[in-house]
Amino acid sequence: MVEAQNCPAEPDQKTSYSFSEQIDPETGVPVGLAPIELVYREHPEFFSLAPGSKYHDVGVGRAGSTNFFLDKLPPGVCKTLALVTSEPHPEEGFTRICEELDGRVASYKFFKESANKVVVSEKDCALITLINMIHLVPEAERIELIRDAYDSLEPGIGRLIISTTFIDEWIPNKDVLLFNNGLTRAVFSGAKRSGVDTRSLVERLKSEGLVMWSVKEYLERIGEAGFEIEFPASSSELMTMPCTAESYHLIAEDRSWLDHTFPGIDYVLAKDITRKALASMLQGRDLDYSYPLPRNTLVVVARKL
Ligand SMILES: C[S@@+](CC[C@H](N)C(=O)[O-])C[C@H]1O[C@@H](n2cnc3c(N)ncnc32)[C@H](O)[C@@H]1O
């Protein structure tokens, strides 16, 4: 593998320094939220909340998803909500995000907790959202999380909205498949050159790497918990997340992502290896960071009967 010499210019770190803030030009929302935006445009009724409702956004990150859902409500309703957010690894500067959320609603609680610990205790929700995070919940805890979400929703009206692109069927076309295979090879070559024991890395990936469920499995588990699935109408109805090579550069900033893709490796080294491999791939194919790498995405809207 040839090390990139004249790397393509890196994306502007000031305007889009994290994956969640890369804006999709088509929909005008962050790339990671574009599939849900399309569901909203087709079914705004899934996103409405009665005054005084309780909303819990789980795995809140930088609150991109929370603000997205609050923005869909009339300001008069938003001001009456009881908002709960939870996140096991809040970033530096999170206090400011909390203050801003607090100013948008009637009451606000934040829990520094992982999903399974907190969903169970926050009852009577009208809406629980698990946005771009359920794949990070250890597989052994996912079914319990879906059941706990069911128990914590208000009967008859409570909704669970899930979005994840980490599904078995994530590859939408041959170009993405080829790019992905090349990137995996480049990452492993880079890891070897950096002194990583790639054999043990493969072993660790088998035991600690991300476990991606199929769409069928998600829909079955959600149905088994008692939910009525309002969207999608069938397991073949997938959305598309309009990722680009820039999204892959940006996601390498995300510590929990690196912990799963490079288990046991120092995250600064993991980030460096990932970014160099990506730059070398783009350079070798004369591409830049706007190269489209869309991902199939599952958005589920489910109602508690
Ligand atoms: C890609 S971010 C999504 C943030 C936000 N939901 C959004 O879409 O803007 C995923 C978040 O899930 C959090 N996370 C990881 N494991 C988790 C767990 N077991 N329970 C709850 N959140 C978790 C990560 O720390 C990260 O902030």
On the 0-100 scale, what is the average pLDDT? 91
Structural class by secondary-structure content: alpha/beta
CATH superfamily of the largest domain: Vaccinia Virus protein VP39
Indicate the CATH class of the largest domain: Alpha Beta
Overall strand count: 8
Q: Kindly report the CATH topology of the largest domain.
A: Rossmann fold
The coarse overall form would be globular
Number of self-contained structural domains: 2
Distance between the termini: 55 Å
The major β-sheet equals:
8 strands, mixed
Low-confidence stretches are: 1-8, 11-17
Q: Which hetero ligands occur in this complex?
A: S-adenosylmethionine
Helical percentage? 40-55%
What are the secondary-structure elements, in order, as H or E?
Answer: HEHHEHEHEHEHHHEEHHHE
Estimated share of beta-strand residues = 5-15%
Level-2 CATH architecture of the largest domain: 3-Layer(aba) Sandwich
Number of helices: 12
InterPro entries: SAM-dependent_MTases_sf
Protein name: Methyltransferase domain-containing protein
Question: What would your notes on this structure say?
Answer:
The chain is α/β, with parallel strands linked by helices. The chain has two domains: 12-167 and 212-241 and 295-304, Vaccinia Virus protein VP39 (Rossmann fold, 3-Layer(aba) Sandwich), CATH 3.40.50; 172-209 and 245-289, no CATH class. The chain is built from twelve helices and eight strands. Strand 2, helix 4 and strand 3 form a beta-alpha-beta unit. The protein is globular. Mean pLDDT is 91; it is low at 1-8 and 11-17. Bound molecules: S-adenosylmethionine. The site of S-adenosylmethionine has 19 residues, from helix 2. This is Methyltransferase domain-containing protein.
